[in-house]
């Protein structure tokens, strides 16, 4: 059994026991969160409607960071150049339960 959950602006496929990274949330390590379910698959049955009560429970493991991204802008013959960096912050969570 697996589920597709919405975490922030992204959707991810999860199974019980998976460790995934979601957008940063301000929750202490060891606390639990519930993520809304978009779709659930149990063997041959696929459920996409009536998932108002369905939820995936996750346990917060800690904070992580994504890869460093370098943004460079350059315009020829004008002397314009700009360099900027970005590193996305994530929260690492472990899926503990899928409830339909």
UniProtKB/TrEMBL annotation:
GO biological processes: translation
Gene Ontology MF terms: rRNA binding; structural constituent of ribosome
UniProt entry tagged with the keyword Transport: no
Record key words, sorted: Ribonucleoprotein, Ribosomal protein, RNA-binding, rRNA-binding
GO cellular component: cytoplasm; ribonucleoprotein complex; ribosome
Function recorded in the entry: This protein binds to 23S rRNA in the presence of protein L20.
Cross-referenced NCBIfam families: L21 (TIGR00061)
Family, per entry: Belongs to the bacterial ribosomal protein bL21 family.
Quaternary structure and interacting proteins, as annotated: Part of the 50S ribosomal subunit. Contacts protein L20.
Protein name: Large ribosomal subunit protein bL21
Organism lineage: Bacteria, Bacillati, Actinomycetota, Actinomycetes, Propionibacteriales
């Amino acid at each position: 059994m697996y589920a597709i959950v919405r975490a922030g602006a992204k959707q991810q496929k999860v199974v019980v026991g998976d460790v995934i990274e979601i957008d940063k949330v301000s929750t202490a390590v060891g606390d639990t969160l519930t993520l809304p379910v978009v779709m659930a698959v149990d063997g041959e049955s696929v459920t996409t409607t009536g998932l108002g009560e369905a939820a995936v429970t996750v346990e917060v493991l800690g904070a992580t960071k994504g890869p460093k991204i370098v943004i460079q802008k350059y315009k020829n013959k004008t002397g314009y150049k700009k360099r900027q960096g970005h590193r996305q912050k994530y929260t690492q969570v472990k899926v503990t339960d899928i409830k339909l």
